[in-house]
Amino acid sequence: xxxxxxxxxxxxxxxxxxxxxxxxxxxxxxxxxxxxxxxxxxxxxxxxxxxxxxxxxxxxxxxxxxxxxxxxxxxxxxxxxxxxxxxxxxxxxxxxxxxxxxxxxxxxxxxxxxxxxxxxxxxxxxxxxxxxxxxxxxxxxxxxxxxxxxxxxxxxxxxxxxxxxxxxxxxxxxxxxxxxxxxxxxxxxxxxxxxxxxxxxxxxxxxxxxxxxxxxxxxxxxxxxxxxxxxxxxxxxxxxxxxxxxxxxxxxxxxxxxxxxxxxxxxxxxxxxxxxxxxxxxxxxxxxxxxxxxxxxxxxxxxxxxxxxxxxxxxxxxxxxxxxxxxxxxxxxxxxxxxxxxxxxxxxxxxxxxxxxxxxxxxxxxxxxxxxx
Length: 373
Prior knowledge:
The chain has 4 helices and 18 strands. The chain is mainly beta. The chain is globular and about 65 Å long.
């Protein structure tokens, strides 16, 4: 009997190291068991401008997040906590800290703060219908706020100067096969920071006391796994600024081969000020992207943009601008990418600050690191 007891004791002791060395579940695994996802990223960059420093403000003009030059920047330290079941109730919170958060906070009218609640909404889904309420990102554009989801380091002219960023309100979507239709109401003001009429509108996206709201209507379809098309419109009549705004945005994407993707983004925006003697401003823009996979770890992206402005609020005349951007990215680890970029912007008018003078062009190079967790 003692022989068997000894064998059982030895077997039990042999199992103890194995039991003690078993890895404890991670926070992501614990949350995942409840249907909750948690992810995040950190991005930082260095930008060098070919133009001389601007003594009055940003060195690079008409840029959303990369106006600073000759500077190391913590662009975004972000996390997203979400539970969005296919059916039933859920919610999402997305917080961004860093230099980019300052631009987002300013757009809300919250001042220049380096922590920003970019998205926070509740959602309910039943059948093909999804309803969400709170603060959420726009449907417009090929580029997004999230640093990890763009092909380039810098944001383009359309993202910065024509399209909306986020909306606070309600949105409903209904899925019909490969197509989805959208409709929503949100607070009245919406972005396009470079071309708003003076004086500055202040609170664009925050609390809104007016009865007028921004109306959102959209449609998207994915005919195949390799192609998609979206069309979205926004209209806002705001007595606070006061400007009546209309934006129409279209995006087409085609995965032409396993290695090459083509994306086309077109915008048309009309701004009608309620002011005597001020003409309507009309902006038409086009952006084309060619994204190429060079190897399993290396990729490249070429972005070409053209923006035409009639009766510019800023310049008081017609003008246009072009932008050319080349970006290379390399995955040095499975969750760390290093990017390099060169960009050159031009205009028919002298609108780019170059030290004490104003020129018709500006250029820069930049490097960025993005770590995902």
